[in-house]
Amino acid sequence: MAPARQGVEMKRTHFKTCPTCGSEFQTTNMRKQYCNVRCTPSYQRAQAFYKDIKVKLPSGTVGTCGELLAAHDLLLRGYFVFRSMTPNSPVDLIILNGKKVYTVEVKSGYMKADGTISSPSAAHTHNCDILAICEQHKRRIFYKGLKGSLPERLQSEK
């Protein structure tokens, strides 16, 4: 083996055994414990949490879950929340803030890696005041004002 060049530090290779899967791996980071991200405890916890949820649900059930999640969030923000009794209603929720009434349409969506919100079905919104995009697996709601400004309590924390 050739000697290291002067001024260049050679990183030492460590051989370790992954505590999750038992496979051997080599690393130059002495603190590394797992062979890959899928073996980390946080990934394992997430997989265990969603294992039971990965049942194929009808789209109407998924939509109902999103509406209930949005209603819960709005209640916690201090609004009175009214939910439609029929699946054919032009809006999903109506919220009351003092004397102001807002109509809310709830759609499923997710946050992209660049921080933008994507909701494939959001283009088909009805005539509502607020669009609530529900990222159900992370239990987050993003609000977007469609007719003017968004009420202050619904604006994202920055």
Q: In the CATH classification, which architecture of the largest domain applies?
A: 3-Layer(aba) Sandwich
The CATH topology of the largest domain is Trna Endonuclease, Chain: A, domain 1
Give the CA-based shape: elongated
Percent helix: 10-25%
Tell me the β content. 25-35%
Sum this structure up briefly.
The chain has helices spanning 41-51, 59-76; strands spanning 14-17, 24-27, 80-83, 93-97, 100-108, 110-111, 117-118, 130-135, 140-145.
Task: Characterise the protein shown here.
- The protein is an alpha+beta fold and 158 residues long.
- It folds into two domains: 14-51, no CATH class; 59-153, Trna Endonuclease, Chain: A, domain 1 (3-Layer(aba) Sandwich), CATH 3.40.1350.10.
- 18% of the residues lie in helices and 27% in strands.
- The protein has helices at 41-51, 59-76, and strands spanning 14-17, 24-27, 80-83, 93-97, 100-108, 110-111, 117-118, 130-135, 140-145.
- The strands form three sheets. A five-stranded mixed beta sheet has the order 3-4-5-8-9, covered by helices on one side. Strands 1-2 form a two-stranded antiparallel sheet. A two-stranded antiparallel ribbon has the order 6-7.
- The longest helix is centred in the middle third of the chain and has 18 residues, at 59-76.
- The N and C termini lie far apart (54 Å).
- The model has no long low-confidence stretch (mean pLDDT 79).
